[in-house]
Amino acid sequence: MAFGIDRNTLRTWKADVRNGKIAFLTHYWIDDRFPGCTTVTKVGCADYQKLIEWGKKYGLRKEWIHQDPNYPHFDLFGDRQKEILTNEQQWEQIKKFHL
After folding, report:
1. 67-85, pLDDT tens digit by residue?
2. Which of 12, 24, 69, 70 has the greatest number of C-beta atoms within 10 Å?
3. How far is Cα 31 from Cα 54, in angstroms, rounded to an integer?
4. If you average pLDDT over every residue of the chain, what do you get?
5. Where does residue 99 rank: exposed (0-12), middle (13-18), buried (19+ CB within 10 A)?
6. Which residue, among 10, 31, 16, 26, has the nearest Cα to 94 in the 3D structure?
7. Which own/partner pairs from 79-87 qualify as long-range (CB within 8 Å, at least 24 positions apart)?
């Protein structure tokens, strides 16, 4: 279950992804498969090769890309999420979600 984002934020992320940008979307998230994780960051880009290359910088494998036909993305959570958001200077998301 996702919560903590508004429609405009989601629309902006989707537009950025479709336009071939590396786009970040963090929201609150609860999934019993990942105990202790309360947020997830989706890092998307419709340019699949660009997304693969971006992921390589952080040791993310292309097999981990969520194969959404319109919004392919990596899901980041836990310590890696905070590390990558920090490296990418996503200060607003870090602050908003207390990461």
Report:
1. 999 999 999 998 999 999 9
2. 24
3. 26
4. 92
5. middle
6. 26
7. 81/26, 81/39, 81/40, 81/41, 83/58, 84/41, 84/43, 84/58, 85/24, 85/26, 85/41, 87/58
pLDDT-derived band at 35, boundaries 50, 70, 90 = confident
Per the listing, tokens 């629309």 go with 11
Q: Letter for the amino acid at 86?
A: T
Residue type, 94: I
- Token match 């490296």: residue? 87
Is the CA virtual torsion 86, 90, 91, 96 positive or negative? negative
How much is the CA Rg of the chain, to the nearest whole Å?
13
- Give the Cα separation of 99 and 14 in Å (integer): 23
Q: Output the pTM of the full model.
A: 0.91
Alpha helices for the chain (secondary structure H): 7-18, 48-56, 78-87, 91-96
